[in-house]
Specification:
3 domains, single chain, OB fold (Dihydrolipoamide Acetyltransferase, E2P), Rossmann fold, alpha/beta, seven-stranded mixed β-sheet, 449 residues, 9 helices
Length: 449
């Protein structure tokens, strides 16, 4: 019988999300930071019925895929779960994760294609959102520990690269010199909750998330930014909510540029500080190009892009041959999408601000009898039963589902399987070094009797 604090010999038989899974004395045991096939001495931290969770004390038989992690914070910071694996093994892990989720959750035998690698395995993130904690005169800016709200001060983070290190150092020095009080989650006091930023093509947008009206002058911070970044914009976002949501509803431009401008796949874009945009530019372009390839629009009369964000993919897919509707619930993103459609002179595009659950049925009802093509790119929670039923009713020949969580993708596919077959399933490594994976699935309508 396993007990807490027992030290056991454990063989990692396979993977379960970001952990390995094995068996000891009849218990199913989950242990992070190992590789399938490795043998280790493991300390048991938690036991419940026939399941236990442990941590590695010593690796006895290391895998040939084990490497030295590229970040000094690995094992403490919660940002990376797979940095101890060779990149090849990370890709295999993610392919298996998607395949296994379809087998366990959707009850479908669908073999995911090999995971498409990221052009950059480190330094790929164009966005950071970091908590600001600590005490006045000694702020701590970094990532949360895994399954914790303790902040690890990160320097040399492998995910975002040099621009983020430079920004964090500048902001920490500014806070310490001007007496900024970091946020306290216990009593909700303090001046600054988060530091958020996006950096694309040499352009930086920085947002200081303030716990109420920001009382400190930002000119010293702006001056320091101007010394290190040629193009920057500074904003303050006010968030007094007592929850874990990063941004509040009000964002004020302080100085510098107010948008990032760029072009992907021939589409010009402009991004505000709170615009949704994929964090890995290289993989985003691969996914959008694949979506355009998979979505057969030769017979399409109506195309719908659900959860469309600022509209980059909408404009990539739009054509003068059919009407395109883009549905997005964030008013700022819809405003950006309208501006982008004008900027790119995109024909026959209608951007709709609203909930996909409400707006998609309206579009289907107003276009009865027409041939649909649909793209869905929902948040991590996936779709819901209403959206799935509406998709079945609309009867598009193909649905391309872009997912950041293969578990909710598999759940939704189980519902859509009433009328659709999975004819393409490919993981993309949007988040190297982590256990998260993006997936692209094409669902093709069956001939129903």
């Amino acid at each position: 019988m396993l007990r807490r604090n027992d030290i056991v010999t454990y063989r990692a038989e396979g993977y379960s999300n970001g952990e390995t899974v094995g068996s000891v004395d009849g218990y199913t045991v989950f242990v992070p930071r190992l590789i399938a096939g490795e043998v280790a001495r493991v300390k048991v931290n938690f036991v419940k019925k026939t399941v236990a969770y442990g941590t590695v004390e010593q690796v006895l038989q290391p895998s040939p895929h084990r490497i030295s992690p590229p970040c000094a914070h690995f094992g403490v910071c919660g940002g990376c779960a797979l940095a101890h694996m060779s990149y090849r093994e990370q890709l295999r892990f993610k392919q298996n994760k998607v395949t296994n989720n379809f087998a366990k959750i959707a009850k479908l035998s669908v073999e995911a294609l090999p995971c498409v690698p990221s052009p950059l395995a480190t330094g790929y993130r164009n966005k950071i959102s970091l908590p600001v904690r600590g005490v006045k005169g000694n702020v701590v800016i970094g990532m949360f520990e895994r399954n914790s709200h303790n902040v690890v001060q990160t320097r040399g983070c492998a995910l975002a690269g040099g621009w983020s290190d430079k920004l964090i150092a500048i902001f920490a020095e500014y806070c310490n010199k001007t007496g900024v009080q970091p946020y306290n989650e216990q009593d909700f006091s303090g001046d600054v909750r988060h530091l958020a930023a996006r950096y694309i093509d040499g352009q930086l947008l920085v947002t200081v998330v303030s716990n109420g009206l920001f009382r400190h002058g930002l000119q010293p911070f702006a001056d320091a930014l101007s010394e290190h970044f040629d193009k920057y914009g500074l904003f303050v976002n006010v968030n007094t909510a007592r929850n874990n949501v990063i941004l509040g509803k009000t964002t004020v431009h302080v100085c510098g540029i107010d948008k990032i401008e760029g072009e992907h796949l021939g589409v010009k874009f402009r991004l505000s500080p709170d615009s949704f945009f994929q964090v890995n530019d290289g993989v985003k372009e691969l996914i959008y190009a694949k979506t355009r390839e998979l979505l057969d629009v030769s017979q399409t009369q109506v195309l719908v892009d659900c959860f469309s964000g600022v509209g980059v993919l909408t404009d990539v897919l739009a054509s003068e041959r059919y009407d395109t509707y883009a549905i997005e619930i964030d008013p700022c993103a819809v405003k950006d999408a309208d501006e982008m459609a004008k900027l790119n002179n995109v024909p026959r595009v209608t951007n709709i601000c609203g909930d996909v659950t409400v707006e998609l049925p309206k579009i289907v009802a107003a276009n009865q009898g027409k041939r649909f093509a649909v793209v869905v790119d929902p948040p991590r929670k996936g779709l819901n039963e209403t959206i799935c039923k509406t998709l079945i009713q609309a009867a598009p020949q193909n649905i391309v589902y872009i997912s950041c969580d293969s578990a909710t993708l598999a759940r939704d596919v189980a519902t859509l399987a009433a009328a659709y077959d999975v004819t393409y399933l490919e993981p993309y490594d949007m988040f190297p070094q982590t256990d998260q994976v993006e997936s692209v699935a094409r669902l093709t309508r069956r001939q129903l009797n």
